[in-house]
Each structure stands twice: as C-alpha cells, then as structure tokens.
Amino acid sequence: MRLWGIRDRTQQRGSGNVTRKVLITGTAGFIGFHLAKLLLAEGFRVHGLDGMTDYYDVRLKQRRHQILLQSEGFSATEGMLEDDALVQQVADEFAPDVIVHLAAQAGVRYSLENPRAYIEANVVGTFNVMEAARRHAVDHLLMASTSSVYGANVDMPFVETRKADTPLTIYAATKKANEAMGHSYAHLWNLPTTMFRFFTVYGPWGRPDMALFKFVEAILQGRPIDIYNHGEMHRDFTYVDDLVRGIRLLIDAAPVRPEPGPELPEWDSLSPAAPWRVVNIGNSDTVRLLDFVEAIEDSLGMKAERNYMDMQKGDVPATWADATLLHELTGYRPKTDVREGIARFVEWYRDYYGK
Ligand SMILES: Cc1cn([C@H]2C[C@H](O)[C@@H](COP(=O)(O)OP(=O)(O)O[C@H]3O[C@H](C)C(=O)[C@H](O)[C@H]3O)O2)c(=O)[nH]c1=O
C-alpha cells in the first residue's frame, strides 16, 4: 500500500515565481495591501480588484493603492465584486495563475446593523470570484474565512478539523457559507482551494473599525475607550506581517484531491472528496483584552479613560488558534509578540497622522 504524507497531498509550487500572476481582491484593504506588497517584492505580478467602499475612511484605502501603484508589477481595477461582468472581465484580461480572495464586508458588530451588505459582498461576490477561478482553471484559489466561524465553540485552541457549526453573526455565517461554497467548486471542477481562518489581525495600516485603531485614536484625542465585556475577553491577535507570510507560503501548498490511502493525520483538514483545505492563521496565543489595553497604554505612554461595557451581541468571548496545520504545510508559525506589534502600529499611526 502506498503511504501518503502531507507532501503527497499538497503540491509545492515554489519555482518560477517571477512570472506568476496573482489576482488579489481587496488590495486597498488592510490585509490585501500587505499581501500585495510582499508578493510584489518577491517578483510576482499582481492585479488588485477593490470596491473602495466607504465602510471606513476611503482616503486610507486610496493611500494604500497609491503606494502599491508605485510598483511596476502592480495594476488595479476599482469595482464591486457583486458586478459579475466586471469580475469576469478583470480575470479575462489579467489571466491569473492564482487568485487570493480577501475582499469582503468584514467586521463582527457592523453585521448586526447592515446584514445585507454581508450577503451581497461575501456570498454573491465570492461566488463571482469562484466563477472566475473556475473559468481560468487557476492553479490555486485561496479565500479568506475567519476565526469567527468557531462561534460558540469552547474547546480551545481551535482546530480546523473540529466542527464549526455554530456561527453567532451573519458575518460568521457568510464566511462559513464561503467555506462550503469553496468546497463544492473544489470538488466539481478539481479546483485546488485553500480557505484561511484569520484571527484578529492587527498592525500598521490597520482597519479603523477594529480595537487597536479605535483605542489608539481615542486615547490620543483624550476620549474614553469602550471596553466590551468589562475586559474579560481574549483574542489570538495576529500581526499582519506574520499573516501575509503565512498566506505567501500557502500559495505554494495547493491541496491535491486525496486518493485512497491511510487516514489523514488528525490535524489535516484536507477534504476526503476534494482538493480543499481550511487553515488557521493565528499566533497560537490568547491575550486578555485588559492586557492588550495595558500594552497600548505603555506604548503610547498615556493612560486610557476606560468605559467598561457589557458583552456585545454576537461577539465571541475568546479565540485561540491551533496553528499546527499551517506549520505542517509551510514550516512557518506566526511569532510576533503582541507588545512588539502594538508598538509598530503606534509608530505607524503617529507618523501617518502626524500625532
Ligand atoms: C472595536 C472594539 C473591540 N473591542 C474588543 C472586542 C474584542 O474582544 C477585541 C478585538 O476587537 P476587534 O474589533 O479588533 O476584532 P474582532 O472582534 O476579534 O474581529 C476581527 O477579527 C475577526 C477574526 C474578524 O474576522 C473580523 O473581521 C475582525 O473585525 O476588542 C472592545 O472592547 N472595544 C471596541 O471598541
């Protein structure tokens, strides 16, 4: 009997990067911007597709794109994922080898205010991207999911092979739907597909709706910060450079449809029916929210005025990634200490906003 190892179930496609073309959705967004920068530095050609929605300050998105446009290997289209004709046209013109789909309506709490935006961007938009990937038979389709899909799970750290069937918000539900949609196309069209579960990503150029940005902004302006669940929350905060390094390495680890063989190791989420995997990208550490706030105060050299609040509807109390699978596939583990990452954010924030 043939013995299968993780390498047999994964195609390592590391060579010839210089000529490879990657279509990234969401390049004006926080993670897409950092990933595009990394791939451009490694000689990939990158085309970005971004809707420039006004969910948060559009100037920040424009600035990110301006920086990317300074690279010769970068081109971009502004347009919405929901516009199928546009998505197909962009893919036809660029003819990508790989698609990394990061654009989404993100944010846990906004999904209570405007759930429809999540259905449109995350369900319809993702379907359009999957169609483009199918039509172009790309080498690898990689799509963002979220640790929010672990929802009401309490067994920590979160492992990809355990059930995640209890999403607590429409945001999480749309991302869980994306994972299932990706599986169906991986099976039907033999489309190698990797889904990432991100864990509270933070760092320079971060999202203004997220805790780090909001807290730093408020403290510097002398306004109180809202601390949910009285600070009794935990997050596996993941530094953005580590995250995009993980994505970069996963590009070269396309799943292969399994053939009959011995059982997969318990930590491998490879589907028994399709070239499809879901992979946590997290720091493998869980930080108490009050410690996170304290680290921000130390970095700023200022004390926050704290407004303790109850748990917010839809929020999960804790996240913590088991990153064994990422390590097995790539040999890499995120490692930036949260104090170090916060300090780099604060340095960027002060420089960018002149504070
Ligand atoms: C904005 C805010 C947050 N918080 C708390 C709530 C969390 O315990 C922690 C981090 O919140 P943040 O909004 O930065 O991140 P998450 O709620 O974990 O959600 C984020 O990470 C997941 C994976 C995604 O998929 C989301 O897109 C992304 O928004 O601070 C507060 O206490 N006050 C605040 O004003």
Automatic annotation (TrEMBL):
It is an enzyme of class 4 (lyase). The keyword 4Fe-4S does not apply. The keyword Transferase does not apply. Coiled coil: none annotated. InterPro entries: Epimerase_deHydtase (IPR001509), NAD(P)-bd_dom_sf (IPR036291). This is dTDP-glucose 4,6-dehydratase. Its EC number is 4.2.1.46. Pfam families: Epimerase. Residues 22-253 form the NAD-dependent epimerase/dehydratase domain. PANTHER family: EPIMERASE-RELATED. It comes from the Bacteria. One of its GO terms (molecular function) is dTDP-glucose 4,6-dehydratase activity. Keywords: Lyase, NAD.
